[in-house]
Amino acid sequence: MIATILLQAAGGFDPKMLIMFGLMILVFYFFMIRPQAKKQKDQKKFVEDLKKGDKVITTAGIHGRILEVNDATVLIDTEGGGKIRFDKSAISLDASKALNTPAK
Q1: By residue range, what is the domain housing residue 17?
Q2: Residues of 38-58 as b/e, b for ≥16 C-beta within 10 angstroms?
């Protein structure tokens, strides 16, 4: 009874407002949540598929070739001849894709 009084005092129940909130939630999902989830899924698959000999770029911007792949880390040979061990999550998907794409 109190809720009915409050709704009447506020101007009543407006179904258009409910539809607008629903549309806002859908827009949020399709333009923000879904693309981010897809990007995370692609990054996870990329990290799982790393193999010896792949050219990669780390999130810190270091270029190199993978020498060894362990459960959670990779050993990267840099151009200067140095070898650095990185966590797999430090390998950048986007930059490594660009590096491994053949030139046209």
Answers
A1: 1-49
A2: eeeeeeeebbeeeeeebebbb
